[in-house]
Specification:
This protein is mainly α. Helix content is about 75%, strand content about 0%. Helix 8 (about 200-220) packs antiparallel against helix 10 and helix 16 (about 390-405) packs parallel to helix 20. The longest helix has about 35 residues, at about 235-270. The chain is globular and about 70 Å long.
Length: about 500
């Protein structure tokens, strides 16, 4: 196998260093360095996915050191999905950030280091290196959240730091217990050695509990979600979109990888508390997250609580652990990242264009910013699970998987969450398309379309200053539309993706 897996981790580190050094001489060069780096990253990720999705799962030994002493990188359908997702979403958010900001070279250097951490988490086959990349991801995410202007971002970043560090420490403690039990950190080796030690061992059971709870913090499962609403609401719009779409998504992938590769489905069957822990956390997160989202008036906080519910679906699929649920889990991870990232970008676009961040500010948005409203509406319906968007297929597979496993309670909870998701998005759709714009705002029916065409929107009507004047750019509009189109287009690709993912699912369940 080529050195491509290792290069995908190294490349954004090099780009980060170049961006930082270039800032000494050229203060606004960071975006261009990041764009070039991520463009190459996307090409490399696609090549990596061609290997991961086209055959049996494999691995890459860094430096050709033998396992278990060397560091292994995993090459399979699930890791390939995450690597491509990280690269594509990071590049899309970067297009939005060129105008929306922040714009310093230090910001883009940190941005690329976050991509490094996320990529490393996606492909590592070593439990300790998962912690290393988890910390790289966490530290850079804390810095990006705090990069906004004013004290609100700093406070949100500090809270994220404190809670996130606690979660990483709990995870590391669990890895330490597993290492004491087995003497190895390689995931494949750990699964063999843990079985040899015996699933009844207190150390093995403690390792599972600590690892899972630590990653619950990172995924933001209820009641360990308290960092998320403040972090999402307090961060700059581009950062909110990036961490909402990728950080919790890749952390959820890490949870799936550790549970299925290290502890294996046999552990879940043998240990009485394992599946109930996952299922109960999933059910509570799904219901409470949706309920809290319904009660919010701030758009970004509503979307944050929505994520608590949506990742509950992932843990629900993990708790039943059959082939149908795991396909749904993978589809939902990809779909949620695209749709939720797009929704945060759309919320930022609306805030820039009309200066509103609350539900009430969306009155008449369909006439004031029709392109933004169309993108937001498409993504919202996808999150509800309206076909043909990918959101429908992820939920469908998970519900069918729970029914196949006889988990009727979980299936009912998921269907209930869909109604609650419809409730908090329907009120926005009603305001956007069936209410008049507030008095005095005028009509900007063609203003954002003019921006999308590359103009400044000055002939779009008497709306005071135009959207371009307010800071809306072609890149911002294009990023939102791309997310909406991708959410619909990916739905059509689900059958082919299921077929390509089958070898990976078979290995994870074996």
């Amino acid at each position: 196998m080529s050195d491509l897996p290792a290069l995908l981790v190294v490349l954004p580190i090099l780009g980060s260093l170049v961006s930082l050094l270039a800032g000494i001489r050229w203060g606004r060069s960071g975006w261009y360095v990041a764009a070039a780096t991520l463009s190459v990253q996307v090409a490399g990720a696609v090549a990596f996915a061609a290997d991961g999705l086209s055959g049996a799962p494999g691995s890459y030994a860094v430096g050709d050191f033998t396992i278990p002493y060397g560091i292994e990188l995993l090459v399979d359908g699930l890791s390939a999905s995450m690597v491509v997702l990280v690269a594509v979403v990071a590049l899309g958010v970067l297009a939005y950030a060129r105008r929306a900001g922040p714009r310093s070279n230090r910001f883009y250097s940190t941005y690329l280091l976050l991509v490094t951490g996320l990529t490393g988490m996606s492909i590592t086959g070593d439990a300790f290196n998962m912690y290393v990349f988890l910390e790289i991801t966490g530290l850079t995410a804390y810095a990006l959240v705090a990069s906004g202007e004013g004290g609100r971002s700093a406070v949100a970043g500090l809270k994220y730091l404190l809670v996130g560090t606690f979660g990483a420490a709990i995870y590391l403690l669990g890895v330490g217990y597993a290492y004491i039990s087995t003497g190895t950190l390689n995931m494949a080796d750990l699964s063999t050695e843990l079985a040899a030690v015996g699933y009844g061992s207190p150390l093995v059971r403690a390792a599972f509990a600590f690892v899972v709870v630590g990653l619950f913090v990172k995924v933001a499962m209820f009641p360990l979600h308290t960092w998320q609403p403040d972090a999402y609401a307090g961060a700059p719009d581009s950062v909110s979109a990036l961490i909402a779409s990728l950080v919790s998504t890749v952390s959820a992938y890490a949870l799936v990888r550790i549970v299925l590769t290290v502890f294996t489905p046999e552990f879940l069957d043998a240990v009485a508390f394992a599946r109930p822990l996952l299922a109960a956390t999933a059910a509570v997160s799904i219901v409470v997250g949706s309920g809290l989202a319904v009660s919010q008036t701030n758009i970004k906080r509503m979307l944050a609580y929505s994520s608590v519910s949506q990742f509950g679906l992932v843990v629900a699929a993990l708790s039943v652990t059959n082939a149908t649920a795991l396909v749904g889990l993978a589809v939902h991870l990809v779909g949620h990242a695209v749709m939720k990232g797009g929704l945060f970008l759309a919320a930022g676009l609306v805030a820039t264009g009309v200066g509103g961040r609350s539900v009430a500010d969306y009155d008449g948005l369909g006439s004031r910013m029709p392109v933004a409203a169309a993108g937001f509406g498409t993504l919202a319906l996808g999150m509800v699970g309206v076909p043909p968007a990918i959101g429908f297929f992820g939920k469908w597979y998970i519900v069918v998987g729970t029914l196949e496993a006889g988990a009727w309670g979980l299936a009912i909870v998921i269907l209930l969450s869909t109604l609650l998701t419809l409730a908090y998005f329907a009120r926005l759709l009603e305001r956007m398309f069936f209410r008049e714009a507030p008095a005095g705002t005028g009509s900007a029916a063609d203003a954002d379309a003019a921006v999308a065409d590359g103009g400044d929107g000055r002939d779009a009507g008497d709306v005071g200053d135009t959207l371009a004047d307010r800071g809306v750019s072609l890149g911002m509009v294009a990023a939102v539309l791309a997310a909406a189109l991708l959410a619909v287009g990916l739905g059509a690709a689900v059958p082919a993706y299921e077929s390509a993912l089958a070898p990976t699912v078979e290995v994870l369940l074996s």
